[in-house]
Amino acid sequence: MKKLMFAAGFAALSLMACNKKENASALIQDGTSAPTETTTADAATTTDTANAQTGFPKIAFNETVHDFGELKKGDKAEVEFEIRNEGNVDLVIIDAKASCGCTVPEKPSEPIKPGASAKMKVVFSATSAGLQSKNVTLTTNTEAGSEILTVKANVTE
Q1: What single-letter DSSP state applies at residue 17?
Q2: 71 by DSSP, 3-state: which?
Q3: Whole-angstrom Cα distance, residue 130 to residue 11?
Q4: Which residues form the signal peptide (predicted)?
Q5: CATH number for the domain whose boundaries are 59-156
């Protein structure tokens, strides 16, 4: 019986606490909340700072597809993709993953500053014959979040 009374009392108390709703707009209009004064200059500075911190870098490449042409089975070939940051905030290559173990990307370890560029080496090992096309997926802090680079080769025996 005591447990039932305790549970009922707790439920009633919980319902009363949850039903209390405050209108923030009314509090501000009534003046019960401390007013915050913002000048136009302060607002512009705050907006600029927020944009600088929340903007996205813009990534550009010298090429997104590189064709090695004809390679012999067992050969290794490498290419350096040039990555440029055409945005206003640092570009970070978080991760670079290849679609196959025969392709190894080496991502830049440092952020790429606005207006700067960096090289990313990709090594392709021709392990099987035929037309090969391998993707390298970059995870970035761009608005899209990822970019894809491709290396191709015609591997002969």
Answers
A1: H
A2: strand
A3: 71
A4: 1-17
A5: 2.60.40.10
Condensed to tens digits (0 to 9), the pLDDT of residues 10-67 reads: 444 444 444 444 433 333 344 444 444 444 444 444 444 444 445 899 999 999 999 9
Enumerate the H helices of the chain as residue ranges. Answer: 2-19, 24-30, 40-54
Q: What are phi and psi of 62, to 5 degrees?
A: -70, -30
104 near 136, Cβ under 8 Å? no
For the chain, give every domain's residue range.
59-156
**Three-class secondary structure of residue 120 per DSSP:** strand
What does each C-alpha distance from 28 to 23, 34, 35, 151 come to in angstroms?
A: 9, 8, 7, 60
150: left (phi over 0), alpha (psi -120 to 50) or beta: beta
pTM: 0.64
- What is the rounded distance in angstroms from the CA atom of residue 96 to the CA atom of residue 37? 47
